[in-house]
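Re: [ENG-882] Designed sequences occasionally contain unexpected residues at chain ends

Forwarding the minimal case from QA. Structure tokens:
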């Protein structure tokens, strides 16, 4: 099977030393979820019940470990729900990466 862009993103996360990601699956990030599934022995996925919880968890992870915290959500409202946790990370200068999906608008 061919390598996908999402496989490359997950490989980049591994290169950066990421071992834990927080998020909520959705249609806009199905490819990323599959790439995480293939890397399940190297990157731990923690399922949250809300996008805001994912961002706050990634922020807390970054603050307490000093490592890059990673959160993800699907497109549109899911991405907006990450903002509170990302703003908390900004205020405390905690390294957090947010990955969001993109909706496809066919012709």
């Amino acid at each position: 099977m061919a390598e996908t862009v999402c496989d490359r993103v997950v490989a980049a996360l591994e290169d950066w030393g990421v071992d834990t990601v927080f998020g909520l699956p959705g249609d806009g990030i199905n490819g990323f979820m599959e790439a995480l599934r293939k890397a399940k022995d190297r990157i731990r996925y923690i399922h949250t019940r809300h996008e805001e919880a994912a961002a706050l968890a990634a922020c807390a992870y970054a603050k307490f470990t000093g490592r890059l915290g990673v959160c993800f959500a699907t497109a549109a409202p899911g991405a907006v729900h990450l903002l509170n946790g990302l703003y908390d990370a900004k205020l405390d200068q905690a390294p957090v990466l947010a990955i969001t999906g993109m909706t496809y608008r066919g012709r």
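QA comment: On inspection the terminal residues look reasonable. The longest strand covers residues 69-73. Proposing we downgrade this to a documentation issue.
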